[in-house]
Amino acid sequence: MRLVRNRSVLIYELVGIAFIIILGSMLHFTFEWSGGQPIVGVFSAVNESVWEHLKLAYWPALLFLLVEFVPLKKTVANFFLAKIVSVYLMVLTIPVVFYSYTAVTGESILAVDIASFVIAVVIGQLASYRLLTHTRLSEKLAWISLGALVALGIAFAVFTFVPPQAPVFRDPVTGRYGIP
Predict the structure, then answer these.
(1) Rounded distance, CA 98 to CA 57, Å?
(2) Tell me, what DSSP letter sits at residue 177?
(3) Phi, psi of 177 (to 5 degrees)
(4) Which of 14, 59, 121, 139 is the most exposed place for a label (fewest CB within 10 A)?
(5) CA distance 105 to 180
(6) 106: left (phi over 0), alpha (psi -120 to 50) or beta
(7) d(CA 48, CA 168)
């Protein structure tokens, strides 16, 4: 029985990889497609900064969390903890890879940027699978995880309009911050 459950959870997480990558790729363009609508900017990249590209993993992963919640909530352990670890691994992997390779090459390489997004999503979803099929951890961690997930979403929304003047928020193409 456990093997069947683990297989179905694994299938959900693998479908999540495709879902997050496809939707995240589309969100790269939706702000421009919308004619620059500010509300769309909360969910889409509004410029080419590293920070704005993290939304491309966060929002699709959050949406997929909602898709998975009903069918999985009673059959897995650590649902919210697994999802927040997944999301945070995604949004940490992307800048770590970006700043590591650009420190060596001195330039951004589109193929590496795309690969880092895909790798981040795979790492996040596989970590989620591991926690979903792990023994149940503290219920307090679930509440802390849920709070951390919400806090990151609020940060994405706020920093779309009022970004700190830090390199991670700076558009390397225009030199601007936030919504143009």
Answers:
(1) 15
(2) B
(3) -125, 140
(4) 139
(5) 28
(6) left
(7) 10
Kindly report, residue by residue over 47-92, the tens digit of the pLDDT.
999 999 999 999 999 999 999 988 888 888 888 889 999 999 999 9
**This model's pTM is above 0.85:** yes
Which residue, among 140, 92, 127, has the nearest Cα to 9 in the 3D structure? 127
Q: Is the pLDDT of residue 4 over 50?
A: no
Mean pLDDT over each residue of the chain, to the nearest integer: 91
State the Cα–Cα distance between residues 29 and 45, nearest whole angstrom: 7
Tokens of 78: 């650590």
Closest CA relative to residue 129, chosen from 31, 27, 7:
7
Distance CA(129)–CA(117), nearest Å, equals 18
